Amino acid sequence: MITQRAYAVEPWTVRERSLDLGVLAQSESVFALSNGHVGWRGNLDEGEPHGLPGSYLNGVHELHPLPYAEAGYGYPESGQTVINVTNGKVIRLLVDDEPFDLRYGRLVSHERTLDLRRGVLERVCEWTSPAGSTVRVRSTRLVSLTQRAVAAVAYEVEPVDSRTRVVVQSELVANESLPGPDGDPRAARALKSPLEPEEDLAKDCRLRLVHRTRRSGLRVAVAADHVVDGPERTTTGCESNVDMARLTVTAVLEPGQRLRVEKLVAHGWSATRSRPAMSDQVAAALAAAAHSGW
């Protein structure tokens, strides 16, 4: 149980007024979002530091063998373990060549609010890099309650007191490194890189990764599309490999200017549908989400 005074008591909201890295794993559980189909743990936007990365799809699991010294009637031959699927919520930030990492520099303020009426997680923080550049970061995260395959992040950065070059990296990441599970070592083997790559794509502002679980044979597709709003001369580029797809946005911001990136993420899985069908499914989910708008 978290008893820190950072958590205010307010109607319909859970508000964390400061960040304590000592209870980061617990706060990730408190600020998790889910609609029963897609589940995102409340990890920080930049992915690190973290207690336990978590992106889940209801029903997606991996099998692990259950060997016995002697076979017996009724002994199960395998077990099932929920796995971490492709992470679509990561958005990293570089501030004048310094990575936005709360373990370094000076954290001026940090607040996260889970709005239970609206179903969104909001974050506002102000951070000074080791080189002395101060930025204000705002993000809003949601898992849709009307389009079950869709989640979204709106990410905004602005300099506080000086001209600043910023680089925002929006990513899809598969087979993330996870802390070793306690207990059954057989499950630990199943959780280590459980997704085999089948397709990766990065084109314009759209990203896609398709994987298949090694033993249970479930195909998982995750895709993302972006809307970028920044000052003149804002540039974008994209790249992908088997376990990562990335959109990079670069801008030079004056005080008062903002760079905003809206990220829509679509998820899908099936035990029977083909790779092209799964790619089309998440592409269609993105199109529907874009039509609905933020």
Automatic annotation (TrEMBL):
Source taxon at top rank: Bacteria
UniProt GO molecular function: carbohydrate binding; hydrolase activity, hydrolyzing O-glycosyl compounds
Sorted UniProt keywords: Hydrolase
Residue ranges annotated for the Glycoside hydrolase family 65 N-terminal domain, each copy included: 16-270
A biological-process GO annotation: carbohydrate metabolic process
The protein, known as: Glycoside hydrolase family 65
Organism: Streptomyces griseoflavus Tu4000
